[in-house]
Amino acid sequence: MALADWEIVIGLETHAQLKTASKIFSGAATAFGAPPNSQASAVDIALPGTLPVLNRAAVEHAIRFGLAVGGRIAPRSVFARKNYFYPDLPKGYQISQFEQPVVSGGGLAIRTGGGEAAQEKFVRLTRAHLEEDAGKSLHEDFHGRTGIDLNRAGTPLLEIVSEPDMRSAEEAVAYARALHALVRWIGVCDGNMQEGSFRCDANVSVRRQGSERLGTRREIKNLNSFRFLQQAIEFEARWQIETLEDGGRIEQATVLFDPASGETRAMRSKEEAHDYRYFPDPDLRPLAISEAWIDEIRAGLPELPQAMQARFARDYGLSAYDAGALTASRETAAFFEEAVAAAVALPGEAAGAAALAKLCANWTMGELAARLNREEKDIAEAPLAPAQLAGLVARIADGTISGKMAKEVFDALWHGEGGGAAGAADAIIAARGLKQISDSGALEKIIDEVLAANQKSVEEYRAGKEKAFNALVGQAMKASRGKANPQQVAELLKRKLAG
Q1: What pLDDT sits at residue 489?
Q2: Would the pLDDT of 456 be above 80?
Q3: Helix (H, G, I), strand (E, B) or coil at 156
Q4: Band of the pLDDT at 449, cuts 50, 70, 90?
Q5: To which H or E segment does residue 428 belong?
Q6: How far apart are CA 191 and CA 108, in angstroms?
Q7: Cα 225 from chain centre
Q8: Which residues, including other chains, have CB under 8 Å from residue 206's CB and lie 6 or more apart?
């Protein structure tokens, strides 16, 4: 199988559960984990005579999203009935939007690849429309029978449909991550994938390189983790290519991904729009959205990730990679900015804002992120406050402690030593005697003793062996019990060895 001969074409349909206290067409609660059928109102279970009433907050969330992606907010959109049978769909139809969605167009910038070599791409969006969720079929602990939980029925969803602009599983995951970060950033979805608040369907097809004609697509349903999304697309693409190279045909179908086997399997033939017999819902008037309402919501939007990235690069001199990493979540960006502001405001701080910002960025993306990842915590749960990181960064910048000492101080801060203010790092440095030796007189004395005791290394260095120099630096650091300023040690050593 020659993968290089084929192009993979991917589009994603993402269901984001909107962060509202009640359902889209009823006053029933949307809290996760309630006992089965305890949050299913008469409207949700479609008792005769009930009528839907649209949730204003759900519409506002849709408008917020549309503005955030640069889409067009429809002044008039229509709810339709999507007709199909499933045991957990009590009405026999789903209220959704079809021909006239609330949002159309727009797009999302993504980055693939790591570090400074990352590639940027813009993924276009087709539409985003409001709809209600169905219930849930429960197949376990029912003695061979299936139970129906209608708590989720009527939960508000925003279905976000991309154009088929992605060409690899990596791009699809980058898009899904960027979308996930955005809906959380603007507060319209909590993004909890384990609870089903954010789930993706991937439309995958393949075609020969150079062909303009799209291949037959298969839709992989309900992918609720980025890892599963990547695995499912990679398997499906390989399967389609192998099938075509063996002379087979791809039939349009809906498929499921089995995480245990890492394979996709066909569930049913893929439905088309006409199969659902869409027609305008007679119980719901068209949704009218005024410019004044849009302007009011626009005024309440937070600074968006791309704008913040540009500001971080402009104001702090950060690279595009650093700015992108720091704005991966709103919480991380806020932590970083608070740390920089606290570091700059410290009394007697002589380092420039750009230098302090770079150090704050390095420690936020490095040691802090690694520790959070290791302990499976979110940045909001970090026991280290931005002001404490600022105090640590300031002491690195002014040469009070070395990078190695800083990790010891960071660990102490993480475990609650030193108090909660910016002076916590100073307290730990003083208590542990970690202050770096920067006095040139004291350092010269240490270096003279090291040179006298290591004549062999001195001779090797003067004979051209660079490793001997590193050995001498190591001996000087050892003699100072790790407290000497490494940069000063290296400079003094070179000067004395050249003499």
Answers
A1: 66
A2: no
A3: strand
A4: confident
A5: helix 424-432
A6: 17
A7: 12
A8: 6, 7, 8, 9, 215, 237, 240, 241, 244
